[in-house]
Amino acid sequence: MANYYSDNPSLRHHLNHPLMKKIVELKERNYTDREKFDYAPIDFEDAMDSYDKVMEITGEICGDIIGPNAEEVDAIGPKVVNNRVIYAPGTSENLKATVQAGLMGLSMPRRYGGLNFPMVAFIMASDIAARADAGFCNLWALQDCAETLYEFGNEEQRQQFIPRVCNGETMSMDLTEPDAGSDLQSVMLKATYDEKEDCWRLNGVKRFITNGDADIHLVLARSEEGTRDGRGLSMFIYDKNDGGVDVRRIENKMGIKGSPTCELTYKNAKAQLCGQRKLGLIRYVMSLMNGARLGIMAQATGLSEAAYREALAYAKERKQFGKAIIEFPAVYEMVANIKAKLDASRTILYETARFVDMYKTWEDIEKERKLEPEEKAELKKYKKLADAYTPLGKAMTTEYANQTTYDCIQVHGGSGFMKDYACERLYRDARITNIYEGTTQLQVVAAIRHVLTGTYLSQMKEYQEEQVNPELAALKSRLGEMVEIYEQLVPKVADTKDNEYIDFQARRLVECAGHIVLGYLLLQDANRNPEEFRRSAEVYINYGEAEVKKINDFINNFCMDGIGFYKS
């Protein structure tokens, strides 16, 4: 009996972060649901016990069912029959197990059939699921689309759709098209209002749609005749029961093969407007994408967890020249770096999830009553931090997932290139993480604003003020020196006022911020739990320090004279 939660002490560490008490109390509105629902918690300890128990169930299902099914699902994959998706048998078994265990609608309010869990708990379940099978994590985690329904749909729509998700129906977000990938302003799927039927009709093609044959779809479509930019786009809800959407084909992908990535044809498909017209891209998709990016961070972290365990196990078992290869410094260094990048990924994942929990819960409370000035200030603070940490975290964790799975294969040597070992699948699955839901390059575009406006620097200085145990003082001091380098680099680039040059150096500045922020977060973890995190903090800060110095040297020695950037 394997359990992917109980065998991983770092998960309980993050679940029991000091900020959780405030998050839970806000989410539970001081535990008033206990008067209406017998499964609602009566206090903080009861709530945390509920989260822990559900994570145990998640870990058990992932360890005993989803993980063991992963290789077969990867080999078989889904198929299209009569324009409908047929999942691989293992995927169907996985979905049945998660639904029967009540693992759908985790974050939805109890009045709609959900568990009212904070985002931290939902993301933790995603982290565990991704370790088992990153492809299945995609299908299961798309239940998070219900957050958009809850935030922007009307009450009738919430009552109509959210209980269905909580009961196990699947969701998709239909955004991209053959000519609209990263540039969603170019979406042309047409939405026209049918006055006779008092509904909207959708016509066109969507491409690269994860779980495209889902029961409930959120669809970005052009509702304003004659427009060609984001202001003409609205969000719609499509119910598969109404018909009108066919799966033309499933993409033949490199990885995450259990997750059907579909091309869809909309033929006069009936749909409902979600929220207000013209805000589909400007407001709703931005919120939807930020939630999805947090989910991809969890997926990347789960993949790094799997890579670490595969690499460590093989390095301990494989013997060369009369001893286990873990005893060779070159191999030990690779395994240690995988572990450090994994722990760094996980710490920014949950820091970001806590920020999201804080601001979204305050926004929800604001619908019920007027916020006090200090409450509004807290909402604004955490919303800004979530906006800053989401692209930074998505960039760092997904690049690390690619690095950790790559190094996992290297630890395995020639065996790692064979399908006999899971690391080959992990490597293929990881490759998409720094592409979909916004490439790393697009995350840099989103994050550089927070470099230039000082959001990251402000947080670094806040972290620097926190007290640490004496044995960690040297690490903290080295992080302080890295902050000084960063503080000098930002104006050196920004003061040129050359937008093209700033764009050119943006990736380096964002990476620099990322190494420092992740270093501080790991230092906090080591301070709270030295046995579990001190070694990773040391390894990561060594690594980050070297990377920051390389960035510093590159920017300071870069000569703009006579150097032209590529022009088409």
Describe this structure in words.
The chain is 58% helix and 11% strand. It is an alpha+beta fold and 568 residues long. Helix 5 (119-132) crosses helix 9 (280-317), helix 5 packs antiparallel against helix 10 and helix 14 (455-465) packs parallel to helix 16.
List the helices and strands and how they pair.
Elements: H1 9-15, H2 20-27, H3 44-76, E1 79-81, E2 84-86, H4 89-100, H5 119-132, H6 134-141, H7 145-152, H8 155-166, E3 171-174, E4 190-194, E5 199-210, E6 216-222, E7 233-239, E8 245-250, E9 261-274, H9 280-317, E10 319-320, E11 323-324, H10 329-366, H11 373-412, H12 423-430, H13 440-452, H14 455-465, H15 473-494, H16 499-528, H17 530-557
Parallel strand pairs: 3-6
Antiparallel strand pairs: 1-2, 4-5, 5-9, 6-7, 7-9, 8-9, 10-11
Helix pairs in contact: 2-10, 3-4, 3-5, 5-6, 5-9, 5-10, 6-9, 7-9, 9-10, 9-11, 9-12, 10-11, 10-16, 10-17, 11-12, 11-13, 13-16, 14-15, 14-16, 15-16, 15-17, 16-17
Bulk shape: globular
Mean pLDDT: 96
Task: Calculate Rg over CA atoms.
Answer: 24 Å
Helix residue percentage? 55-70%
Helix-strand makeup class: alpha+beta
Order of helix and strand elements from N to C terminus: HHHEEHHHHHEEEEEEEHEEHHHHHHHH
N-C termini distance: 58 Å
Count the strands? 11
Low-confidence parts: none
Number of helices: 17
Strand content: 5-15%
**Largest sheet data:** 7 strands, mixed
